[in-house]
Each structure stands twice: as C-alpha cells, then as structure tokens.
Amino acid sequence: MAGRGLALYLALGVVGLIVGLYGAHGGSVVLAVVGGLLGILGFGEVTVHGLEEAAHAYGLRRYAAGVLVNSLAVAPELLLAYSIGSRGVAEGNPELVELAVLSVMVSAGFNLAVLGIVVLMGRGGLRTPSEASAIELPLLRAVVAAVSVIVLYALVEAAYLGVVPRDPLEASLTLLVFFLVYILWVVRAGREPGAGAGGLGWAPWLLGGLGGLVVAAEAMSAGVEGMVYGMGLGAAGLLIGLVGVAPEAVLNLLAAARGRREEAGFGLIAATSATLLLVYAVLAILLPLPLDRYIVYTLGVLAAGLWLVQHSIASGGELDKNEAVLIILLSVSSLLLLARV
C-alpha cells in the first residue's frame, strides 16, 4: 500500500475513533456507530498493511501471502462481533449475542456471493492455481466436514429435545485447531527457499492497527444496542456484516476486473473459510451462541457453497459459471432469510 494511501487510512481510523468515542460517551447511537465503522475501516487497512509487510519480510510467495493476508484480515470482524456479543452477555441481552453471530454469517455469505460474481466476470471458469490445490483442498474439506457436524448436531438436538441448542465447545475447538494448522501449513508451504527470518518493521503497523480496532469495536458496540431497537435484529446484522466486508469485496472485484480473477477468487475462499474457522469458532468458544433455525440454515448454505468449490477444484480444476450462479443464489437466499430475523 502506498504511503499516502496508508496515511489516509490511518487518519480515517483516528477520526473514526474520536467520533465513535464521543458518540459512545455522549449517548449518540449514530455517532457511536458511524465513528466505530470509520475506525474499523481505517485501522482494518492498517492491520492488513502490517500483515502484508510481515508476509513479505518472511519471504512468502505471492499466492501464499495473499491467502495468509485474506485469512487474517477477518480480525476486524472478530473484534467487532466479540465486542457486541460480550456486551450482550454483560448486560443480559441475548439479542446482542445473536446479533454478533448474525453479522459473522452475513460476512461469510456475502464473500461467497462475491466469489460467484468474480467467476462470472471472466469468459471461462475460475481456474485453480497449482498452489491452491495443495493449500486449499484440505482446508475446504475440513471446513465442510466440521460445519456439517455442527448443523447435524443442532438438528438432532432440536428434534429430540425440542430446544434451541448452544454451539458445542468441542466442535468450535476443532474449527479453531483446523485454522491454526492451516496457517502453519500456508507459511511452511508458501515460503521461498532460503528466505531469511525478516525484520520486524511490520510489527508497529500490525499491533497499532489491532489496538485501534479494539477501541473502534468497543465504541461501535456501545451504539449497536440502539440500532437493534431502531432497525430490528436482522437489518442491524445485515448492515454490520455487509459494511465489515464491503471494502475487501470491492478490492477483490477490482482485482478481478484487472485480470487477477484467480487471486481475487481464492482470496475470497480463504476469507470465507477463515470467517468460519476463526471468527465463528472464537465467538462460539467465548460466548453462549444459540444454534437457532436462521444460524443453522446459514451454516448449511455455507457448507454447501464451500463443498461446491472444493468439488470443482478436486474434479475439474476450475469453478464454472453454472456453479457460480448456484453459489450466488444460495448465498443471497441466506442473506434474505437473515433479514427477516
């Protein structure tokens, strides 16, 4: 990222923090939410810059670096969702806890929809780079299997006990372990031979970005409760989830328009997988997440969409346009359902 662009994002983050904290302490829902969003957008880009610099310092190949950055760039979503959910637990407000997980489901579903659009932007299907088969296939299979187990567990519990179950701790821990193994695999498999340890020039950007994200997420969560009462749970979840992933979605669409469809497409796949393996898993471990019909349906849609992706990679080496249309329809259906919550 160019120095001027980074400075603009940093300034945006600082202004967002000031506005968000003023709104949070002054009781203004609009200022708290808008300021928090600006802070998350600004410091989110600073965090991504730190990740990119770290990948470069440690000699990762371009594809592996892109996968790593897209996987860890979900940090803003994680911090915001946890801030909202923990506030709900502290205040005894289960709606805020459900809002936290709804925003995560929206982010993952929207990423899949954008993936389908990226496929449709070219003349042919989305071809699989050689590195993607080795890196992505094991992960996708693990994600589909683990999420399917959670969906099956919720259905069985609801059918036999007639209650809305909580996400099982063992399943969430399994998702998190999958993610950690995946990140280690990407770093080891994607490193250039003979690459040095690299410097630590990236650390201030990464740590500063994460620190700004924590404060911005806390400021925004202070105004979210008012949003729920004013807009409704589903509409608030859609807004928070879409705003959180919109910047990266736009960047991936621009990359695809400039001829880098494979890079954009598999970056979106990595981001979707990371949303489930890291963001959802951490929330389920730290918060009492309900597996209601909306969440279970969306998890099932995400598992089906990712299964289509991994099946295409394994069998034909590309994701074709028919499969892209199906993925878009599945994703949009889940988003429309969540809007009714």
Structure description:
The chain is mainly alpha-helical. The chain has one domain: A middle domain of Talin 1. It is built from twelve helices and two strands, in the order H-H-H-H-H-E-H-H-H-H-H-H-E-H. The chain has helices at residues 3-26, 29-57, 62-72, 75-91, 94-120, 130-161, 169-189, 203-231, 233-257, 261-286, 293-315, 321-338; strands at 126-127, 318-319. A two-stranded antiparallel sheet has the order 1-2. Helix 6 packs parallel to helix 10 (261-286). The radius of gyration is 19 Å and the shape is globular. The mean pLDDT is 83.
Short description:
It contains 12 helices and 2 strands, in the order H-H-H-H-H-E-H-H-H-H-H-H-E-H.
Roughly what is the average pLDDT, rounded to an integer? Answer: 83
C-alpha Rg (nearest Å):
19 Å
Q: What topology, given as strand order, has the largest sheet? A: 1-2
- CATH architecture type: Up-down Bundle
The count of helical stretches stands at 12
Residue windows where pLDDT falls under 50 for at least 5 positions: none
Percent helix, as a range, is over 70%
Keywords: Membrane, Transmembrane, Transmembrane helix
Transmembrane segments: 7-24, 30-51, 63-84, 96-121, 142-163, 169-187, 199-217, 229-254, 266-288, 294-310, 322-339
Describe the SSE topology.
Layout lengths: L2 H24 L2 H29 L4 H11 L2 H17 L2 H27 L5 E2 L2 H32 L7 H21 L13 H29 L1 H25 L3 H26 L6 H23 L2 E2 L1 H18 L3
Antiparallel strand pairs: 1-2
Helix pairs in contact: 1-2, 1-8, 2-3, 2-8, 3-7, 3-10, 4-5, 4-8, 4-10, 5-9, 5-10, 5-11, 5-12, 6-7, 6-10, 6-11, 7-10, 8-9, 9-10, 11-12
Keywords: Membrane, Transmembrane, Transmembrane helix
